[in-house]
Amino acid sequence: MKGLEINTNSLNCFLVNDKKVQLVNKHLESSGITLTKREAECFYLLAQGITSKKIAKVLDLSPRTVEEYIIKIKNKIGVSYKWELSMKAMHLILETYGQDF
Length: 101
Hints:
Layout lengths: L7 H8 L2 H12 L7 H11 L4 H8 L3 H15 L4 H16 L4
Helix pairs in contact: 1-4, 2-3, 3-5, 3-6, 4-5
């Protein structure tokens, strides 16, 4: 059985909710962390468990560009590993939205 195929055309509309991304970014800014719009979008998608390759498809970026954003976000947030970043992202999203995420 193959893994779940994701239609990236619908993902872009469904997963990248600008209002939610802005709220997450405001929450981070209140902690002294400033992300660019693209970094915030990557952070938001990581919180949803989306892989870097799929994030690249959703945001119409190269996988290398997404990885560079992730490195910058890790440095800004102060974590060493991508899994730590994903956990922080999930925690922040749940803290911000609760079950409505």
